[in-house]
Amino acid sequence: MPEMPEVDALVADLRARMTGAVVAGVEPASFAVLKTFDPPLDALLGLTVTGVHRHGKFIDIDVDGLHLVIHLAKAGWLRWSDKLATTRLKMGNGPIALRLRLDLGDGPTSGFDLTEAGTRKGLAVYLVRDPADVPGIAALGPDPLGEGFELRPLLARRMQVKRLLRDQKILAGIGNAYSDEILHAAKLSPFAIAEKLDDAEIGRLETAITEVLAEALEEAHGKPPAELKDDKRTRMRVHGRTGEACPVCGDTIAEVVFSGSSLQYCPTCQTDGKPLKDRSTSKFVK
């Protein structure tokens, strides 16, 4: 799943490519992808892209005051093209869910396709007059790299810290991968209870959130969209590294599997050498 660093880099790339372009076509190819009906998609035709912004993991394309909002979910992605196919998309079961055609002054040749792999469909597109009209944006917690961010008040919850980091209503933008990386850097168990963390643990967690995300942002920015997901995978130290050696201590990276996903951690660095019990539950997914 693309998380805040990749979405932020994608937004910056789109902002540079799209600002000033005129919308020449919007072609949905999936009945499920569009989550709103008023205003209709054809309201965008002939309007100009005035900006592209990020809200958590949401992409917000401002088109003369209308907002085309995209959530890529687990398996969605955006594929830019300087020369789109001229044939119009048809409704079907293919990987392309929606196409946006743009006129950058040389005709309606540029734009992007929204694609989604797999059978579990979560890719979502909204057309709204205010980004806050999207329920997921309205419910977002603070951005962990935003000005004035404070972690300590958010920890007053009796919940596992792994789940807290992933909960978009508490913190915006962190998902499964970067929560694993943050907890490894902070030397904390994913199962640690947030409200029971002591001052030293909170300090390590604050530092890890800032450093891991800031480093990921720096690495992601400037890369073309087609490279962002693979680049993310190569930078992970523990996430997706089950069975490999921890780059800090050399212990073997372990895994806990839960509903449709998994987490990875280092027993030596994070749990005093004790393996975590494999809990098949959906509580980490919320």
Automatic annotation (TrEMBL):
Domain Formamidopyrimidine-DNA glycosylase catalytic, residue spans: 2-93
Q: Which InterPro entries does the record associate with it?
A: FPG_cat (IPR012319), FPG_N (IPR035937), H2TH_FPG (IPR015886), Ribosomal_uS13-like_H2TH (IPR010979), Znf_DNA_glyclase/AP_lyase (IPR000214), Znf_FPG/IleRS (IPR010663)
Keywords, A to Z, come to: DNA damage, DNA repair, DNA-binding, Glycosidase, Hydrolase, Lyase, Metal-binding, Multifunctional enzyme, Zinc, Zinc-finger
**Which SUPFAM superfamilies does the entry link to?**
Glucocorticoid receptor-like (DNA-binding domain) (SSF57716), N-terminal domain of MutM-like DNA repair proteins (SSF81624), S13-like H2TH domain (SSF46946)
| Alphabetized Gene3D superfamilies for the sequence | 1.10.8.50, MutM-like, N-terminal (3.20.190.10)
Query: Which SMART domains does the record match to this protein?
Result: Fapy_DNA_glyco (SM00898), H2TH (SM01232)
This protein's cofactor list reads:
Zn(2+)
- Quote the catalytic activity from the record: Hydrolysis of DNA containing ring-opened 7-methylguanine residues, releasing 2,6-diamino-4-hydroxy-5-(N-methyl)formamidopyrimidine
All residue ranges annotated as the FPG-type domain in the record: 237-271
Q: Which PROSITE patterns match?
A: FPG_CAT, ZF_FPG_2
The record's section on PANTHER family has: FORMAMIDOPYRIMIDINE-DNA GLYCOSYLASE
Q: Which family does this protein fall into?
A: Belongs to the FPG family.
Q: Name the chain's protein.
A: Fpg/Nei family DNA glycosylase
- List the lineage, top down: Bacteria, Bacillati, Actinomycetota, Actinomycetes, Propionibacteriales
